[in-house]
């Protein structure tokens, strides 16, 4: 159930404000003033996104980011460290440059996927081919020798580069419906054809590679103008590149019309062997209850098609800025305030799962975890995560945050625990009260999440500033709270899907030796 904080609830809280209201207000005032008048968000955002760049697990940039964070915290007087929790395949992205060289010359917009094997320095030049329609795997195997020495296009060409909202605004209803119907049919036929080959998204590129292809050309449109999702390559020897929709469509049509287009692809990268992976941890020690913890949480890694600005640069900025502000406005917290900048969330919450597994005494001492990881928007949803009494404490803390920041927040109590999605799930699984500060979308899913357009210019700094204030005040209130928070679990609802009662998720072990497939 979703409900707005009720008036009755607000009045109940008003009557329970403690006698320390004066001091409390002074700290909150100081938090708000520091956030608004001495904001470091723009500087931090520029240094992290523009200077260091994307933070793919196992890359030198990821390590640079961890070192940068430690240096920042130390410059603010907050002790910080990088904790190694595993190893990953080391890889460094080099130059990607893709040109059509036949039947005419045109530079194309695209990039190699993460972990793509390198081309020679001079690149590779070859003709493009498309997948045939086949009725079974035998027919596909018979066709396979055709890929020798060729670049293979493995994605369905999109019938339109206009997002649906654009069609909805301008198309006649009839042509919009027709386009959607034809696109659905095309998508279904494409899916069936891939199924007929007997291969999957993962095994198809490897099979083409083994058959002598010299490169894989894909296009993963994210259903907005100019956006593609950029994930990882599956090939072992030959490059895999992603082309933006417009160029991919043009090339596909040229192949179909018999023009035999050729590309010159330079996709340089370096394999760096096994490298250590880290979490960055910083702490302001508690003065009364150092073994109880308020944890600020945001994953630090990203995919690398953009610079990871909204996934999760902004969550990172919120937590760093909140820590900086707390150190100034509330330097002697009752409980320890710890921030975790987790590695390798994108491959399965690995950094936070490792932290939970390696630090049972900290997990035991958790007062509250606040995680932010769904974009740049101001926080508009908070769930109690299935903790039966979360309404009591979280509601009280939220009440101390200025109304202009909490006005739009819809709360759900007691809610249900997450089974993944972001790092708070790692803590919830271990029974520690952990909460997601969930953002307004700002077109996150189509336009920035894992895309080539997840960059600094998409950050909405006023919203991020509000989130830093919200997080700092929640951390302050959680630290000051008279009692340790209750971990009692709510009776979970019956699942609509299975018809059975939901069970509390259990902790899972991280991948500590990644990218070795
Ligand atoms: Zn994320």
Cα separation of the termini: 42 Å
Biggest β-sheet description? 15 strands, mixed
Small ligands present:
zinc ion
Radius of gyration: 25 Å
Residue share in helix: 25-40%
- Beta content: 15-25%
Average pLDDT score: 95
Strand segment count:
15
Instruction: Give the low-confidence spans.
Output: 1-5, 14-20
Summing up helix and strand content along with how strands pair, one would put the structural category as alpha/beta
What shape does the CA trace take? Answer: elongated
| Helical segment count | 17
Overview of the structural elements:
The chain has 517 residues and is α/β, with parallel strands linked by helices. The protein is built from 17 helices and 15 strands. The longest helix is centred in the middle third of the chain and has 25 residues, at 173-197. It is elongated and about 75 Å long. The two termini are 42 Å apart. The structure holds zinc ion. Residues 299, 311-312, 345, 373, 422 line the site of zinc ion. Zinc ion (ZN) is lined by residues 299, 311-312, 345, 373, 422.
Descriptive keywords:
alpha/beta, 517 residues, binds zinc ion
């Amino acid at each position: 159930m979703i409900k707005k904080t009720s008036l009755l609830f607000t009045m109940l809280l008003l009557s329970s404000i403690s006698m320390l209201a004066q001091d409390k207000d002074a700290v909150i005032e100081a938090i708000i003033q520091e956030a608004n008048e001495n904001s470091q968000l723009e500087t931090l955002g520029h240094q992290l996104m523009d200077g260091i760049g994307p933070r793919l697990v196992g890359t030198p940039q990821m390590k640079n980011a961890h070192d940068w964070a430690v240096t920042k915290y130390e410059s603010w007087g907050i002790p910080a460290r990088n904790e190694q929790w595993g190893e990953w395949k080391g890889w460094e992205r080099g130059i990607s440059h893709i040109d059509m060289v036949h039947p005419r010359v045109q530079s194309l917009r695209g990039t190699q996927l993460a972990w793509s094997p390198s081309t020679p320095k001079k690149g590779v030049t070859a003709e493009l081919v498309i997948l045939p329609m086949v009725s079974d795997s035998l027919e596909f195997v018979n066709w396979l020798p055709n890929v020798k020495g060729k670049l293979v296009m493995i994605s369905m060409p999109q019938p339109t580069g206009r997002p649906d909202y654009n069609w909805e605004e301008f198309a006649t209803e009839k042509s919009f419906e027709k386009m959607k119907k034809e696109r659905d049919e095309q998508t279904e036929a494409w899916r069936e054809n891939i199924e007929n080959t007997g291969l999957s998204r993962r095994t198809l590129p490897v099979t083409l590679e083994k058959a002598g292809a010299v490169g894989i050309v894909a296009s993963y449109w994210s259903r907005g103008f100019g956006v593609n999702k950029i994930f990882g390559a599956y090939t072992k020897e030959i490059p895999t590149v992603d082309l933006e929709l417009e160029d991919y469509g043009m090339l596909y049509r040229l192949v179909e019309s018999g023009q035999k287009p050729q590309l010159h692809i330079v996709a340089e990268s370096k394999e760096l062997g096994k490298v250590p992976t880290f979490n960055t941890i910083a702490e302001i020690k508690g003065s009364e209850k150092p073994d109880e913890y308020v944890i600020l949480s945001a994953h630090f890694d990203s995919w690398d098609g953009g610079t990871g600005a909204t996934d999760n640069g902004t969550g990172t900025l919120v937590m760093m800025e909140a820590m900086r502000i707390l150190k100034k406005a509330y330097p002697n917290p009752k409980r320890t305030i710890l921030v975790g900048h987790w590695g390798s969330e994108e491959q399965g919450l690995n950094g936070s799962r490792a932290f939970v597994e390696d630090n049972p005494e900290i997990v035991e001492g958790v007062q509250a975890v606040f995680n932010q990881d769904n974009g740049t928007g101001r926080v508009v949803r908070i769930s109690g995560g299935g903790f039966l009494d979360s309404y009591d404490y979280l509601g009280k803390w939220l009440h101390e945050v200025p109304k202009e920041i909490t006005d739009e927040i819809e709360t759900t109590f007691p809610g249900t625990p997450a089974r993944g999605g972001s790092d708070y799930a790692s803590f919830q699984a271990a029974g520690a009260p952990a909460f997601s500060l969930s953002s307004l979308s700002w077109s996150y899913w189509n336009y920035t999440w894992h895309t080539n357009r997840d960059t600094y210019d998409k950050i909405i700094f006023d919203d991020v500033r509000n989130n830093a204030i919200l997080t700092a005040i929640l951390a302050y209130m959680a630290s000051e709270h008279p009692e340790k928070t209750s971990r009692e679990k709510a009776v979970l609802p019956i699942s609509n899907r299975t018809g059975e009662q939901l069970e509390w998720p259990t902790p899972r072990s991280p991948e500590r030796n990644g990218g070795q497939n």
